[in-house]
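Bug #77: duplicate submission created two jobs. Keeping one. Sequence:
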Amino acid sequence: MGKIRILIVDDHGIVRAGIRSLLESQPDIEVAGEAAHGEEAIEKARELHPDLVLMDIALPGMNGIEATRQIKKEFPDINVLVLTMHDDEEFFFPVLRAGASGYILKEAEPQELLYAIYVVCQGQVFLSPAIAKVFLEGFVKADAGPQDEKYSSLTPREREVLRLAASGYTNREMAEKLFLSIRTVEKHRQAVMRKLNLARREDLTKYALRKGLIDFEG
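Kept job's structure:
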């Protein structure tokens, strides 16, 4: 088996240099190239066809989530491992839905990043322990009895909006998918939050996971 060829995507040059130095110290890893923003990441993916893209989320112009979605759509065989400072579900679930196979925080130790790269390149999923903890918390909260009653109060359309919103779709994307106006989608989403007594979008995601309405593939 040849070396793992990696494309580093981050808008900070000093960060890319640090990652490159770490990766190039490994005999079985090769840095195929670098990109500073989402559009460049897609261009480099087409040009270099790396085995793995190490993707930041907060990028100028096109963000890492959309860049991941486009790369996976065009090149399903390219693995994407997200390396980011963001540790909340606002980014976590959408980027997994976009096709990423792993999510690791920039606070991780170098050996953890290397391990994540090997795991993802073997076709498996890697989640930073802190992210895995957030994910699992959704399954250990309060009993589902009252929640089941609340779920039954949702209309079929509200249930569909719940599933899509929890999977990471924006109001605009839901509107296009359901052939509704953005305003109507927003009203449905607000109704769902009110009926389920949820305050934040991440609570909605956790609820949908407990109900089995979504999975990692969205």
